Amino acid sequence: MSLDSTGRGAPTSEIDFSALYDTHPEYVARREEGSLEQAQIDTEVRLFKLPNLMQLLPSSRQLRTVLEIGCATGELIAALPVVPGARKVGIDISAANIAVASTRYPDIEFHCSDFNALQGVKFDAVIMSDVLEHVPNDQEFLRAAAQLGEVVLVNLPLEDNWLNWMRDYGVNDVSGHLRKYSFADGMRLFDLAGLDVLVHSQVWFHETAAELARRALREQRLGSAFSGSWPERAAKRAIVMAAAAAPPLGRRIFSSNLFAMVCKRPSR
To answer: Is the model's pLDDT at 7 over the cut of 80?
Structure first.
């Protein structure tokens, strides 16, 4: 499901993605100390991303060298449990994101660069969380990233759901997503990139404690767990109640995430 252009406007090859994520409103807000967006990312990392990524690893596997590609402002790589003295490296093409990450987490090694600058270096694990949907050629990106790690831990949003049905994907998307994936798309992507899936899980955010914590945070900061006008908030509350009452319906309404540990396919 690789895309070389969004199908609208300039091809992605002509877009400066580093500048895009320096100025993207979501990331600008996330970099602001004490902001709601920063608190939401911290909650998502602590209660959703980190537990589901770590669950992919055998309990006996210890991480001594870890690289996160597309680390943004550094919350995930900072929270990742590793053995004492381990090397943690975060890399991102946004200079503004890396500047904030370096300030917040001075004990971690951050680089503003393309990850290909690290070719030849080998890590116990490479992490990519909410990254592949942002890159023009997801297949080649994933294949190249897998050269750097014994295993790759991937968190891929699966947005082939009703609430994203009319979403206009591309560089102007509210989150900068170039495309959406279904579960089958994600598994096919791993195969086309020449990777074997060692273990995987599909998790719906709205079914987790992270969603409850996010609503509580919004209630505390904004006075309401849901955004929008009163009718919009009432509609959103009704949808959440319907999803809770009928889980199969909820899984069609809301997006999920594919968490997978993959590795390079052995040469035959």
So the answer is: no
Residue 222 lies in a domain: no
CA dist 6 and 231 (Å) reads 33
E-state strands within the chain:
65-69, 87-92, 109-112, 123-129, 149-158, 195-203, 256-264
pLDDT at 98: 98
d(CA 216, CA 153): 29
pTM: 0.93
Residue 190: which domain range?
14-160+170-207+256-264
Tally of domains in the chain: 1
CATH number of the domain that 46 lies in? 3.40.50.150
Q: Sort 189 into a burial class: Cβ within 10 Å, 0-12 / 13-18 / 19+.
A: buried
- Residue 24 belongs to a domain: yes
CA dihedral 236, 241, 242, 243 (to 10 degrees): 90
Pairing of the two strands 195-203 and 256-264: antiparallel
**Could you give the CA distance from residue 82 to residue 61 in angstroms, rounded to a whole number?**
10
Res. 6: pLDDT tops 60: no
Name which of 117, 136, 97, 99 is nearest 6 in CA terms: 136
Q: What does the block give as tokens for 148? A: 């750097």
**Residues 70 and 89 sit within 8 Å (Cβ to Cβ):** no
